[in-house]
Structures are given as structure tokens and as C-alpha cells.
Design goal:
Immunoglobulin-like; 207 residues; single chain; alpha+beta
Amino acid sequence: MQTIGELLKKYRLEGGLDIEAFEKITKIPQKYIQALEDNQFNKLPGGFYVKQHIKTYAKFLKLQEKKLLEVYEQQIGGGDIQVYHPQKQDITKEIITPARIRIVFLLCIALLLVGYLGYSVNKIYTPPHLEVTTPATNLIVTDTVIEIRGVTEPGSRVTINNRQIYTDSRGYFTTTLDMKQGINIVKIASQKKHSKESVVFREILVQ
């Protein structure tokens, strides 16, 4: 049958702790750890200290304090020593508490709000989509009036050569522009209230 000292040593080693490391975390002097695990209780200051050290073992190794003390009492009382198979405490119960669940929940909400805020700010300042379907790039024409047609994000302000034009509720726009003989540079721009401009240039040669 295992003694209290053998049990304490066994579960200390199972916890991956040598005597030096166990001394650091429990503040029990090495000489008392050695004496306790060797069942040399006379080398400790007294029975009170033996029990306190056993309680310390139980605390740091997550063992059942009451059972360990019963094994010790039976040993020093001369009774039969029962084998003690400690039931490890459920550490998850200590980790998962209602308070910690609330904290995690609030952190998740905060992260979602920050993410949504970042997305909203980015959407506000990002230039709107702008597509010019007519005229084509590097167009050569003989007419001095051309049609300009395209689409942008609804609610955006569209200008052609710095002149604002009408867009419908879906963001489509159509207008005509007078050209002069030779090369004409047409600037089509779209801008939301606080965003940068989206700009498309068309070079048109009128012969």
C-alpha cells in the first residue's frame, strides 16, 4: 500500500515538477518536501506543519485535500493505509464562469462594432464605382456632338469637364457634349459626399 509520502511524490512527478520547481511555486523548503515524501515527519517542525504542507500539495496539484489528510491520519495512527486515487478537480468549472462568459460576450460585441464602424468609414471615404460605357477609348469621330453614357453608385455626384449632370435613382447618366475640331479630352468624375473622386478620361479626335 502506498504511504502519504509516496502519493505526494507520485502526483508531484505526474505534474511534471521536480523538487526545486515545486519549492518555487509552493514556498515549501526543499528539505521539508524531501522529508514529507520520505515519510520522515520527525524532520518537520510538527504535525500541524505536515498537514499544512499536505494541503499545499492538494492545492497546487488539484488533489482532494480531505482524502490526503485521511491517508496521513491513518498512517500516523497505525491503521491500514488505504490506496488513494485522487479525483482531479474539474478545472474547466474554474475557467468557465458566468462572469468570464459575459466578458467574452462583451468583447465579441465590441469587436463586431469596431469592425462594422471600420467598414462604414471605409465605405464613406472609398471612391464610388464609375463605368463609362459611351464613348469608347481613343474615339475618332466627324460629329462635333457626342453622347456620354455611364453608371455610378446611386447618390454620387457626377461631373463632366467639371459640369454636374443628372443621374437617376440607379446611378445611370446620359448627356451630350459639344466637341471642337482636333483632340478633345473629356473628364468624367464621380464623388460621394465625403469620398475621393473616381475619374475616367476619354480622348476624342474630331476630324
